[in-house]
Design goal:
By secondary structure, the protein is mainly α. A hairpin with a 2-residue loop joins β1 and β2. α2 packs antiparallel against α3, α3 runs antiparallel to α5 and α4 runs parallel beside α5. It is elongated and about 55 Å long.
Amino acid sequence: MNGMLRVPRSRGVLSGLLLVLLGAWGALVPFVGPYFHYAYTPDQAWTYTTGRFWLEVLPGAATVLGGLIVLVSAYRPMAHFGAWLAALAGAWFALGSVIGPTWAGMNMTTGTPVGGSATRALEQIGFFTGLGVAIVLVAAMALGRFSVIGVRDARLAAPAAAATSDAAAEPVTSATPATSATSDAEDVPAGTGGTGRFAFRRKATTTGETTEPATERISSTQM
């Protein structure tokens, strides 16, 4: 069973790399976007606000961390944890701009997108909604890849399972009990001589059969 939890490190390379890039984009775009007139107010580069921390920097960092875990993990539960972390961060990207402003005292405001109508739509997609959907999609793909046990995984797990079964096996010894005769002792006549005859009694033991003569003589008068 433990062998099935191991996966090749190459399994999450593509998904992990995409998550790292998307998370870095989400965390850095509010600070570098004003250079390209692609920003929310305040449209000044490298300007920190509480809203940017909660709605962009924090989920972006969580996505990068989840992507790194998916990228380097060779242990299936750990890779699942990284993918779920990235998926939750992506969901917060998509919904945080809607839920955050309703929380009083948190100052989770996104600001106002700058530019024309087309630019504002692209900013909404690139900063929050579209970015969050993309992160959730890639994280879901990573979860699917790490949830499937393929032929290669079974081959990798076979040597570990064989070693475990060999270590658990113990030599079994059996002893054959000595057989004993089940019949009671019986008397058998051995021969006659003179005025009488001797009877020999056969006695059964656990190691073999022995014969011994009877100690009483049967007289001819008793016959």
